[in-house]
Amino acid sequence: xxxxxxxxxxxxxWGIFPRDKGEFxxxxxxxxxxxxxxxxxxxxxxxxxxxxxxxxxxxxxxxKRHRRALDGLVEKLVKAGWQQLPEQGAxxxxxxxxxxxxxxxx
Length: 106
Hints:
Blueprint lengths: L1 E12 L5 E11 L13 E4 L3 E4 L10 H16 L3 E6 L6 E4 L8
Antiparallel strand pairs: 1-2, 1-6, 2-3, 2-4, 5-6
């Protein structure tokens, strides 16, 4: 089984400097690299919440909090038996992992 880390907006914080709240999520992929349907429990792990400036629209690779949240999610996946693959998706955080189907326990 394969998974890829994505960024998902989960809320907003209003004020002088509005921010989007979000998290990194490890989502299951099929062998063709396509996200599995929603009814098949595609999210297997998530990171701590992060905030980004609403005008940025995406996490910043240079932001220490964003990097720490991603590293924490990667650590959770590795501890659960997932192996990081050398290829990744388009975004800097779109890391891909593999886990043998027989040992699949989210």
